[in-house]
Specification:
Elements: H1 8-14, H2 21-36, E1 44-47, H3 54-66, E2 72-77, H4 81-94, H5 96-100, E3 104-108, H6 118-121, E4 124-130, H7 133-146, E5 154-160, E6 169-172, E7 175-178, H8 180-191, E8 194-201, H9 205-208, E9 228-231, E10 238-239, H10 241-245, E11 259-261, H11 264-271, H12 290-312, E12 321-326, H13 331-350, H14 356-376, H15 383-394, E13 397-402, H16 405-411, E14 425-430, E15 443-448, E16 455-456, H17 457-463, E17 468-469, H18 472-475, E18 479-482, H19 484-505, E19 516-517, E20 524-525, E21 536-540, E22 545-547, E23 554-555, H20 559-576, E24 585-590, H21 591-604, E25 605-606, H22 615-627, E26 634-643, H23 661-671, E27 676-682, E28 693-699, E29 707-711
Parallel strand pairs: 1-8, 1-9, 2-4, 2-5, 3-4, 5-8, 11-18, 12-14, 12-15, 13-14, 15-18, 16-20, 26-27
Antiparallel strand pairs: 6-7, 10-17, 19-29, 21-29, 22-28, 23-25, 24-26, 27-28
Helix pairs in contact: 2-3, 7-8, 12-14, 12-15, 14-15, 20-21, 21-22
Length: 712
């Protein structure tokens, strides 16, 4: 049944606003999947870009869900009070007409009354709950004792920033157990009789790497890996990694000038105050902080130029601008960076208009930005006016330290979730508090210095607050400052994220198993290891061969097992010969047919003395490899018969190879650089039950880039 977009709630929600067709299509597709896929056991996912409009899309989906069978929604938010308040305010604003018409009620869990009359409880309800221990306990109480009738109503859980706090494990002795918040969210899902889950994030990598069947020992009962993904569209004016890491590679473009390298030594100076190395009194002249000083002057000039352009265009509103400094997590570092930025500002204020130091600094920034503006086809003031403009900007330049929830609360606009730009020119110094859920408008400068030994893809992307909706004219004066090593890592992360989105949009990711690009040199990983402790992660390396069966398997003796082997024999007979044809014989096969053979191999074998075989995961890998081959999703197949290896090697180790390496090499050569399935028919040797069986191996092409995925 098609999704009803003419219901009372969606009609009230959309009144007076334009719902973009792409947003409506995405939201409708998500609700349709929630209604048709068994998402009570398997969540769905809205996969958006950083600061691209994910909240707008999930609220649109919620409005549609209320008109299509759902009665209650629980919205989990990041565990920061101000962001929870922001979500409540946003939902009340978006559903204002529906609230006024007595169709919807919106509550924050900690302030939700415990004595609501039945008429209000019977309306559509939205309960916003912070992902925090006391908040979720209150939610349990409301569902268990105050409003138990809600447990039988159809509920949609929306887990915003679903890869943050909603998953995580720890080791308890020798066991892997879930963290506190995920276990409490799991119990909420248990309490509700008819529930669907919609996850929302820009960084779903740890969600995709969850086991599809959660080990009971963890304490979880509900799966976390998404069953489907809907890609959230980005609207016109969105600036993301494609601008910073793709368009910036085009020679002659103004984006080519975005990136400004910062020496590694300067990042050390910014980490902490060290008078033996750098004296703050020399901040206007010292080469030790050359890039940082340059970034401040360039930001002020860039903001002045944009305000100059808007005044000449008689714009009704003159914009204000933001510059973000995120290089450390330690609060002591933030204090030092604030002090340094303010000292640079104050010392520059004291310089006269004709001071050669100020003129030189502005001249360098003017030459730099002037080239960008020329390439963008825009106008800029002359140097003299620019010098005067920077002097004026210094008096409207404000430095904000943002490294606590209270500081965010003072600056955050409660309705639109953006940091308020108090002054004309605003520099924000902070750490992780300036990531998920915090939108910084009009960013034209980003100074980034986080440099762990191994970059975590989800963490780094969430730091990219320079992404978002930006005026096209702002880009010509935008600059990004970081070290060459960090820039290279961020470029790699962007490539990995783009590859995943392309795969999902092209339907190349098999349902339920997701393949993520990874770095063979170990410098980038998808997420923190604590998020995937319960998962069995497998790597896909170019030019490798993957053994599929676990050690210590045996042959089934029952009729079902024997028939499975006979079925494989019949399937291969016409193209690859019969039992007496030892081979090797080569050919091609549809990936789906090859997957069916792997499933029959599983049915023919006894895994009771092993860790088991996730044939579904390996069939998905075969399908994924075939989807990139460009030959109608087919794989090359090599069939060899007559092997008779013993179950245990002479040295006592379990047998794991039923073919000689030279035969593997010959098969790889014969099959070409394509995804290959090597099938070996084994006439059982010593230790096996006396029945033939098939043994599989995957041959990974050289052209396949490194990936990881999760097996059960």
């Amino acid at each position: 049944m098609p999704i009803d977009s003419n219901g009372r709630i969606f009609t009230a929600f959309s009144r007076g606003r334009v719902v973009e067709p792409a947003t409506l299509d995405c939201a409708s597709a998500a609700v349709d999947s929630l209604l048709t896929v068994s998402t009570a056991a398997e969540p769905g996912l809205l996969f958006g870009k950083v600061q691209s409009g994910k909240t707008r899309t999930f609220i649109t989906a919620l409005a549609l869900a209320f008109d299509n069978g759902f009665d209650v929604s629980i919205v989990f938010t990041k565990g920061v009070k101000v962001l929870t308040q922001q979500t409540v305010a946003r939902l009340i604003q978006e559903f204002r007409t529906a609230v006024d018409q007595d169709l919807v009620q919106v509550f924050e869990v900690m302030s939700m009354p415990e004595n609501l009359p039945p008429a209000l409880v019977s309306q559509k309800l939205v309960i916003v709950c912070k992902k925090e221990d006391d908040n979720i306990k209150r939610l349990h109480s409301l569902l268990d004792s105050k409003y138990p009738e809600l447990k039988s109503r159809r509920c949609l859980i929306i887990d915003d920033e679903a890869d943050f706090a909603s998953i995580g494990y720890r080791r308890d002795g020798g066991a892997v157990v879930t963290a506190v918040i995920p276990s409490k969210i799991d119990r909420v899902r248990q309490l509700l009789n008819r529930v669907a889950v919609l996850q929302v994030t820009a960084t779903p990598y740890s969600l995709y790497l969850q086991p599809s069947v959660v080990p009971l020992a963890t304490g979880l009962t509900q799966p976390v890996r998404p069953a489907f993904t809907k890609v959230v569209p980005s609207g016109p004016g969105y600036v993301g990694g494609d601008v910073y890491f793709e368009r910036s590679q085009r020679q002659g473009s103004f984006e080519e000038l975005f990136y400004v390298p910062v020496p590694l030594g300067e990042m050390d100076v910014l980490r902490r105050e060290d008078p033996a190395r750098f004296n703050i009194e020399e901040c206007v002249t010292s080469r030790e902080v050359d890039s940082f000083r340059r970034s401040i002057v360039t930001f002020l000039l860039g903001g002045f130029i944009r305000r100059w352009q808007e005044r000449r265009a008689n714009a009704p509103k003159i914009p204000r601008f933001a510059f973000i400094v995120h290089s450390e997590t330690a609060r002591a570092s933030h204090l030092w960076q604030v002090r340094l930025a303010e000292r640079i500002r104050d010392d520059l204020r004291r310089l006269g208009r004709d001071d050669p130091r100020l003129q030189e600094l502005v001249q360098l920034a003017h030459d730099d930005l002037g080239e960008s503006i020329r390439r963008a086809g825009l106008e800029a003031p002359e140097l003299g006016e620019s010098i005067a403009g920077v002097r004026e900007a210094l008096d409207s330049f404000m430095v904000h330290k943002v490294n606590s929830e209270s500081q965010v609360q003072r600056l955050l606009n409660p309705v639109n979730g953006e940091l308020d730009l108090v002054a004309h020119y605003n520099l924000f110094v902070g750490g992780n508090i300036l990531d998920r859920g915090v939108t910084v408008p009009s960013v034209i400068g980003f100074f980034y210095g986080r440099r762990p030994a191994i970059s975590q893809q989800d963490t780094v992307l969430q730091h990219c607050r320079m992404y978002g909706y930006r005026a096209a004219s702002d880009l010509a004066v935008t600059r990004f400052y970081t070290t060459p090593g960090i820039y290279a890592s961020m470029q790699t992360i962007h490539e990995f994220d783009t590859a995943l989105r392309s795969d999902i949009e092209a339907n190349r990711q098999p349902r339920g198993v997701y393949f993520l690009r990874t770095d063979s040199r170990g410098r980038v990983r998808p997420c923190g290891p604590q998020k995937v402790l319960a998962s069995h992660i497998e790597a896909v390396a170019p030019g490798s061969q993957k053994l599929l069966l676990p050690l210590r398997f045996d042959v089934r003796e029952d009729l079902g097992g024997l028939r499975a082997t006979e079925w494989i024999d019949r399937q291969l007979l016409d193209q690859f010969g019969g039992p007496d044809d030892l081979g090797p014989r080569y050919g091609n096969m549809a990936a789906a047919d090859a997957g069916a053979i792997l499933e029959q191999i599983r049915r023919s074998l006894d895994f009771s003395q092993t860790t088991g075989w996730d044939v579904r995961g390996h069939v998905a890998l075969l399908t994924y490899l075939a989807s990139h081959d460009g030959r109608a999703r087919s794989v090359s197949v090599s069939v060899i018969r007559g092997a008779s290896q013993p179950r245990v090697r002479p040295d006592g180790r379990p047998q794991n190879y039923f073919v000689y390496q030279r035969e593997v090499d010959e098969a790889r050569t014969a099959l070409g650089n394509r995804p290959g399935l090597l099938l070996v028919r084994q006439t059982p040797g010593a230790g096996f039950r006396p029945h033939p069986f098939w043994w599989p191996m995957l041959l990974i092409p050289d052209t396949v880039l490194p990936h990881v995925f999760a097996l059960n």
